[in-house]
Design a protein that fits this description.
Blueprint lengths: L6 H9 L8 H15 L12 H21 L1 E4 L3 E7 L2 E6 L2 E4 L6 E7 L3 E11 L5 E12 L2 H6 L4 H18 L3 H6 L1 H18 L2 E12 L2 H43 L1 H16 L12 H23 L1
Antiparallel strand pairs: 1-4, 2-3, 2-5, 6-7, 7-8
Length: about 325
């Protein structure tokens, strides 16, 4: 059995004029001496590497580059924007659509939804200016108009605007009476929106609407309001009745004056009244007194008053 010898070792040994032993036991001893003198045992022959090995290395390198390139691709929907940070510093906005960032955490994208959001504020128990405790529900509509500010200026924009809305709701209700809260809702809603719009603008948010949804009153206050409403309705009924009586009296006065100017009209009215009484099928007895007796009694009364006045003067 012959021990194998690398071609480069054989070529170099022959170039030095040294012959390689043929016997296996002699060749083994000879190789150990050659390795100790020339240190050939630690030498690597890069020339023996094949072209296939270099191709594999290139394929691996290309694969790594392609993987890194694809890992930086991002997709933003039409209602989304990507806030880009490069090594911790803001560099711009990307999207909508396909965009690319530098991988290996060199660039980082924060995706922001810019659609309108609806937030139902939890029920708040507050006190009005006239010291009435009520419970109020409200609804908030807002959207992000500056994605960069919503990420940089505030930690959690949705939570911040929600807490701000609750605080503004309690403050505005506390500045108005109960009647204003119940009757002037449009005014209260405008004040609610204006109370938070300045702070949200600095955060890149736009408050579209902020309105009260429901006002819950205590049971005792509901009873008081019911009594108040009943008193108001009774007052209106009495006023309407008094106005009707006043108008009727004016009409009756005008009718009486008209009849006094024309005695025949009074007789006709009397005859009409008799016919109406007779149409009721009852046993009512009607005594007819001529109107001349009424005129005579008025004349006699005036005469007696004048005579008494003359006697008193004498």
């Amino acid at each position: 059995m012959r021990l194998p010898i690398a071609p480069w070792m054989a070529t170099e040994v022959r170039a030095r004029g040294t012959e390689i032993p043929e016997a296996p036991w002699e060749r083994s001893e000879w190789l150990s001496r050659v390795d100790s003198r020339t240190n050939y045992g630690n030498k690597v022959d890069f020339g023996q590497w094949s072209t296939r090995s270099w191709s594999e290395i290139m394929l691996i390198a290309v694969g790594i580059v392609i993987f890194l390139g694809l890992s930086g691709l991002r997709v933003a929907q039409e209602y989304q924007r990507g806030v880009i940070f490069r090594l911790g510093r803001y560099v711009g906005l990307r999207g909508p659509g396909l965009y690319w960032i530098i991988p290996l955490n060199i660039e980082r994208a924060v995706t922001i939804d810019i659609r309108t959001r609806t937030v139902s504020a939890e029920q708040q128990e507050t006190i009005t200016r006239d010291s009435v405790t009520i419970k109020v529900n409200a609804v908030l509509w807002y959207r992000i108009v500056d994605a960069a500010k919503s990420v940089i200026e505030v930690t959690d924009a949705p939570s911040a605007v929600y807490q701000l809305a609750l605080t503004g709701l309690r403050n505005i209700i506390g500045q108005h009476d109960l009647d204003e809260v119940l009757q002037e809702r449009n005014k209260i809603n405008d004040l609610l929106r204006e109370s938070i719009v300045n702070s949200t603008t600095a955060w890149g948010l736009e408050v579209q609407r902020f309105e009260m949804k429901d006002v819950e009153l205590p049971a005792a206050m509901q009873q008081v309001m019911a009594m108040q409403a009943e008193a108001i309705r009774e007052k209106r009924a009495r006023i309407i009745k008094a106005e009707a009586e006043l108008e009727a009296s004016v009409k009756l006065s005008a009718a009486a004056a008209q009849m006094m100017a024309n005695p025949a009209a009074l007789e006709l009215r009397r005859m009409q009244m008799i016919s109406e009484v007779g149409a009721e099928n009852n046993s009512t007895t009607v005594l007819m007194i001529p109107s001349d007796f009424v005129s005579l009694s008025h004349t006699l009364d005036k005469y007696l008053q004048q005579r008494n006045a003359d006697s008193a003067s004498q």
